[in-house]
Amino acid sequence: MGDPVNPRPSARERTRHLLLETARAMIAAGEPVSVQSLAERAGVSRATAYRYFTNADSIVLNASLPAADNPFRDPQWEPPGSGEYADLPIRMGQVVVATSEWAFDHANELRSVLAASLSPDSATRGMSRVGKLNRGRWIDSVLADLPPDIDPETRQRLTNALMPLFGADAVVWTTDAAELDRDQAIDQLRWTAETLVRAVLAQS
Q1: pLDDT tens profile 38-71
Q2: First to last CA, the chain
Q3: Half-sphere exposure of 175 (CA within 13 A, CB side)
Q4: What does the alpha-carbon distance between residue 182 and residue 179 come to, in Å, rounded to a whole number?
Q5: Model's pTM, two decimal places?
Q6: How many CB atoms lie within 10 A of CB 79?
Q7: What are phi and psi of 44, to 5 degrees?
Q8: Mean pLDDT over residues 124-143, rounded?
C-alpha cells in the first residue's frame, strides 16, 4: 500500500517536475529555451511537452519562479534592523547585499524573465512585473525608521532611488553598463544604498 501521508507523485507530476528541472538547467546555463528544445533535452516527445507548456514564455515563467528559500518570494523574509537612525544606511546596505547575492546566483533566470517582461504585450501574456515586486516592501521596512521630520516626498524619492538596486535591474546595470564583476557589483550596490540613505539623513 502507498503512504497515505506522503503519496507517490503521479506520472503527470513526475513529468512536469522533469520538464521544470530541465528548463531551469537550460536557463541557468544561458541556453535558448523552446518547447522543442526542452522536449529534446528532457527526453520526451514534443506532444508531451506541449501538454504542459504552450510556448517559450510559459516555460520561462514557470521555471524561473524562485525557490521557497529565495528572499524575492518569501513573504516571511525580513531585513535586519535595530531601529536606530544612525544604523539605517548599514541596514539598507545589508538588505541590498542579501538580495544581490541571490540575484547574481540566478542572473540568467532573472534576465530571461526581464526580457519577457519588456515585450509590448507582456501584460496580456502574463509576463508583466508591475505589482509583482517585493523590493518596495523591503525598502519600506527599513525606511519606516527614518526620522519623523523627513517629509513624505523625500521618503518617496529615496524609495524610488533605491528600487534599481534589486533583482535583474541591479544585475544588468552593474555588469552590462558598468562592466563590474560579481564582487565589485555587489559592493557597488551596497555603497549606493548606504550613500543614498546617508544623504537623506543629512537633511534631518
Answers
A1: 999 999 999 999 988 888 777 876 776 554 345 6
A2: 69
A3: 16
A4: 10
A5: 0.69
A6: 17
A7: -125, 170
A8: 76
